[in-house]
Amino acid sequence: MERLASKVALVTGGSRGIGRAVARRLAADGATVALTYGRDAAAADETVRTIEKDGGRAVALHAELGRHGDAAALWEAFDERTGGARVDIVVNNAGIGRSADLAGLTEEAFDEVFAVNVRAPFFIVQQALPQLNDGGRIVNVSSGAARLAMPEAIAYGSTKGALDTFTLNLAKALGPRGITVNSVAPGIIDTDVNAGWLRGNAEAWEHASSLSALGRVGTPEDVADVVAFLASDDARWVTGRVVDATGGSAL
What we know:
Residues 7-208 form the Ketoreductase domain. Keywords: Oxidoreductase. By secondary structure, the protein is an alpha/beta fold. It is built from eight helices and seven strands. It has a single domain, classed as Rossmann fold (3-Layer(aba) Sandwich). Strands 3-2-1-4-5-6-7 form a seven-stranded parallel beta sheet, with helices on both faces.
């Protein structure tokens, strides 16, 4: 059964990794998906083709996030490609990481990671409010790094903590409209972002697996299934929460 039939979803950073898995899952559940990409148009087009091959509906939108005016430009592109459709589901997945400790982080890198990971979701939601249907769903992709001490990625973890606070306040603000807002916090996931240090390195893979209570590295689909739950009517009574999707890491 297509539990998201007639729904329209926006998934930022939907061309690869977790975003791609989320876009595919929401489309499989019946939603029409608009997925954004920053630089890799080929990956975005391939994701759209895969969704269509599986019987779903999707469009790809180019969106450089993190600069002033980017959120408004994104919704203009959304309106153009969808014919001004209203939106039911917003998944703020796009994000970047900066692996530097307190001493090594530059002001430029700090500004960039906060612009993409915090400012962009904030203003994407702000700009969405006029066309976001009552009873809609907002899901912010956070990280287990928001609750763990990781000094080597202090700025990244801080952005995800800020995103979780945004989730909490947004849930309260939009509750009267029946809109739920939640965060999903993945752990170590086998994506292209982690490929350089994880894939092909047996020692790194074993260590990453050992951090999870379930004894393995997560997949994008593990996270996408949680997002799909929160985007569905099954999660109608869940809001303002951070849902841990780390496989029980660091318990």
